[in-house]
Design goal:
Helix content: 40-55%
Strand order of the largest sheet: 1-4
Radius of gyration: 16 Å
Number of strands: 4
Strand content: 5-15%
Distance between the termini: 11 Å
Number of helices: 7
Shape: globular
C-alpha cells in the first residue's frame, strides 16, 4: 500500500491549487480592475484533509493510498532538503487553519476563475504522470 506522508494533523484541511490557476486567477483579478484595489484574494482550488487527498490519489492511481500524519517536530528533524521550512509551513497551516484555509472562499474563487481546478480535475489531467516507486 502507498502512503501519503505529510506533517499535517488528522482532520485538518489543506488548501491546494493547480499552479496554472495562479496565473489565470491573477489575470482575472487584473481584468476585474478597481473592484480588487485594496483587496486580498486568497487562492485555492480545493480544501481537503490528508485522508481525502490520499483517498483521491488512490482512486486515480488504482492502488490504495493511506494518509500518514507526521508530527511537525519529527518532520523538521528529517534529513531532507528544507525539512525545517516545510515543517514550519505545515505547522502554520495547522495552527492557523481558519486564517489560512478558511480565508479561501472556493465559491467566490470559481466565480472569478470558472476554470479553477479541483483536486479531482488536477488528478484527471496528471495522475498518469505520477511515478510510484
Amino acid at each position: 500500500m502507498l502512503a501519503l506522508t505529510l506533517p499535517l494533523e488528522d482532520g485538518k484541511l489543506l488548501a491546494g491549487v493547480d499552479v496554472a490557476d495562479i496565473g489565470r486567477t491573477a489575470l482575472a483579478i487584473l481584468k476585474g480592475g478597481e473592484q480588487f484595489i485594496g483587496e486580498t484574494v486568497c487562492l485555492a482550488g480545493d480544501h481537503l484533509t490528508g485522508a481525502q487527498y490520499a483517498e483521491k490519489l488512490g482512486a486515480a492511481l488504482g492502488e490504495p493510498v493511506r494518509f500518514q500524519s507526521v508530527p511537525y517536530d519529527v518532520f523538521r528533524s528529517l534529513d531532507i532538503p528544507a525539512a525545517d521550512e516545510l515543517g514550519n509551513m505545515f505547522q502554520y497551516y495547522g495552527d492557523f487553519d481558519q486564517e489560512f484555509t478558511g480565508a479561501r472562499d472556493l465559491d467566490r474563487l470559481r466565480e472569478l476563475n470558472a476554470a479553477l481546478k479541483s483536486f479531482d480535475d488536477w488528478l484527471a489531467e496528471n495522475a498518469s504522470k505520477i511515478e510510484v516507486k
